[in-house]
Amino acid sequence: MKRVGNLYPQITDFGNLLEASRKAQKGKRFRANVLAFNDKLEQELEKLQNELRAKTYQPGRYKTFEIVEPKRRMISAAPYRDRVVHHALCAVIMPIFERTFISDSYANRQGYGTHRALRKFTQFARSSQYVLQCDIKKFFPSIDHEILKVQIRRKIKCKDTLWLIETIIDSSNPQETVIDYFPKDDLVSPVMRRKGLPIGNLTSQWMGNIMMNPFDHFVKEQLKVSKYLRYVDDFALFSDDPFLLQNALWKIEDYLATLRLKLHPMKTQLCETKQGVNFVGFRVFPDKIRVRSENLKRARRRLKRLQEDYRNGKVSRKDVLNSLQSWEAHLKHGDTYQLRQKIFASLSWQRG
Question: What is the rounded CA–CA span in Å between residue 72 and residue 66?
Fold first, then answer.
């Protein structure tokens, strides 16, 4: 694999940092920390540029909070100036790795996303009798720092860029504790190895794809499974031969162990596609696509909160319309016409 060098001048270029600040503030530009940074934008960017060039830059402390939907997770928010650095780095690095990704890896990539993944999943499900669905257990908390760095070094040889990437990795705040043993581990190996990337970082998203890229190629090129796709830590293999998929599962478990990752035992299953298969919030049947009941319940709760916020003047009519249009656009990817009519007819938008 050809390694790429001389990237750091592009990353620290003032124009790149300026564009990174524009991307980092998207949807957040009226927050106090963003306003303070933008009040002295040129000086702040020059300071950041000088720190990066002198390699005195050090990431700040994360703010953490927990979300419970769709599942309980710890989210880490980096300081705004660090998010500017993340965007500046990704603008230069991501295109290099993007060229190595397979076409059926759908998360955190320009022009991909959940709806495109759903269309491909539906195509595979309706042309195959069986599906092997897998979920990696606690993916981001389990990502091994040294294994990730080795994979990045296979493509990047610019020492300064590697310094910045590894500084960001090493500054990761403690994540959910994961104790898993792998071949040749001693008693303390799972504790001594640094692991875990903060969910919420732009850098964590593309590093997750880098971590899984060799696995994607393993499934497609060594297992010879043509009908395969992945969305972050969820992936599926399709075939008319259940024995082929069962054999693939054993080999997948062995390969993931080399990355120090394990499958979730309760979310990994081999089943017939005619029974209906869950994916990105929908349940795909041979003749229709339905919204999963738990996703529908969450959406109803969010709409109820939105109604309350609008009634109490906490959100504007424009915000309400944007939210409703976004949710309706999502629902349209399933067979949900009657459901949408029923839900939207029941909504009442009045000020208190």
Answer: 7
Q: Which helix (H) or strand (E) holds 325?
A: helix 317-331
Same domain assignment for residues 64 and 104: yes
| Same-domain pairing of 181 and 126 | yes
Q: How far apart are the C-alpha atoms of 264 and 186, rounded to whole Å?
A: 23
pLDDT at 328: 74
pLDDT digits (tens, 9 = 90+) for 272-312: 999 999 999 899 999 888 887 777 777 777 777 877 777 77
What does the alpha-carbon distance between residue 98 and residue 93 come to, in Å, rounded to a whole number?
A: 9
Residue 349 inside a domain? The answer is no
DSSP state of 275: G
Q: What is the DSSP string of 53-104?
A: HHT-----PPEEEEE-SSS-EEEEE--HHHHHHHHHHHHHHHHHHHTTS-TT
pLDDT at 240 over 60: yes
